[in-house]
Amino acid sequence: FQQELINSGRIVRIYLDEFKNRSSVEFGMLKLITCPPSEAIEVVNQIRSGTKAEVILEFIETILVYKFPKMSREEIEAMFTLDDLRQTRVFQEIQQESLQRGLQQGRQEGRQEGRQEGRQEEGIKLLLRLISRKFGALPPDRSAQISTLSIDRLEELGEALLDFTTIDDLYAWLDR
């Protein structure tokens, strides 16, 4: 089937080395796809000198992303100084997607942090009420000390509070 297709005349072989002197954008694109990475900068600059069309820049960007898969967008941009890439639709979409992901991640972290702080505040309030009911009002410095405890320590204090018989037991626990 392949040989039949080749013989049909619908496929034309093009040898890029025969077109080295050609400066058209189309051949420049073909060169960029097939050239070794060491020649890519030169080829991109040749293409850029021939046109500034957004379509061409988007195509160049796509080729470069595939040609240098281990490089970040910033590295590629710095390597080729493609300032116009920032104006391409692809670049703007990537930037917008990154922003959306960042906002979503920030909201999620904020909610989680808010829940954690809420648990801690409620734990502090509950323990201070229980201590006040069992032993009377605490001095401000001891209330402040309890307010700085982590959630884990607040839970430990809540359990230990059941065994305390005097306020001194509480103070001993806090001072350890």
Descriptive report:
This protein is mainly α. The chain contains 9 helices and no strands. It has helices spanning 2-7, 25-34, 40-50, 54-67, 73-80, 89-135, 140-147, 151-161, 167-175. The termini are far apart.
Q: Helices and strands in order, then pairings?
A:
Layout: H1 2-7, H2 25-34, H3 40-50, H4 54-67, H5 73-80, H6 89-135, H7 140-147, H8 151-161, H9 167-175
Helix pairs in contact: 2-3, 2-4, 6-8
Q: Outline of this structure?
A:
This protein has 176 residues and is mainly alpha-helical. It has helices at 2-7, 25-34, 40-50, 54-67, 73-80, 89-135, 140-147, 151-161, 167-175.
The proportion of residues in beta strands is under 5%
Structural Rg: 34 Å
The first-to-last residue Cα distance is 85 Å
- String of helices and strands: HHHHHHHHH
Q: What is the tally of beta strands?
A: 0
Query: Which structural class do you get from the secondary structure elements?
Result: mainly alpha
What do the pLDDT scores average to?
A: 80
Write a concise keyword list for the protein shown above.
176 residues, mainly alpha
